[in-house]
Amino acid sequence: QVQLVESGGGLVQAGGSLRLSCAASGRTFSRNAMAWFRQAPGKEREFAAAISWSSDITLYANSVKGRFTISRDNAKDTVYLQMNSLIPEDTAVYYCALDARIRRPLTAVPNLYNYWGQGTQVTVSS
Questions:
Q1: Beta strand extents in the chain (DSSP E only)
Q2: Residue 14 to residue 72: CA distance in whole angstroms
Q3: Which parts of the chain have pLDDT scores under 50?
Q4: Residue 2: other Cβ atoms inside 10 A
Q5: Cα–Cα dist 122/17, whole Å
Q6: 94, 20 in Cβ contact below 8 A?
Q7: Which residue from 63, 86, 64, 67 is spatially nearest to 14, judged by alpha carbons?
């Protein structure tokens, strides 16, 4: 059973930075695409960023492009989301997700991700 555990969330002022981490268990982790989604109160879960298993391809939502950077360290079974220039609209619970499919293009579609973490809260004060 694959398990994902996010960490690194917190309360920051607008313009600040946070670095989220997602620790994964399971021997297939390093061969699977990973992604970050976020969900604000009263809103649907939305895509933020994704990264291929080999880190050669990344995908970003327009809302975070240029401010967020996704990366991974397969030796540590960990994926990261570096968030800079945070704005209040970034306030949400951030979820790490794993795509159990192999040899498939990156996707921003949440239904195609099979495993999810419990989420970590990010709050950006205005």
A1: 3-7, 10-13, 18-25, 34-39, 46-51, 58-60, 68-73, 78-83, 92-98, 115-116, 120-125
A2: 26
A3: none
A4: 15
A5: 10
A6: yes
A7: 86
Torsion of Cα atoms, 23 then 54 then 106 then 35, to 10°: 20
What integer pLDDT is reported at residue 26 of this predicted model? 78
Residue closest to 113 by CA, chosen among 54, 57, 32: 32
Q: How far, in Å, CA of 38 to CA of 47, rounded? A: 7
Dist. CA 43–CA 24, nearest whole Å? 26
pLDDT for 126: 93
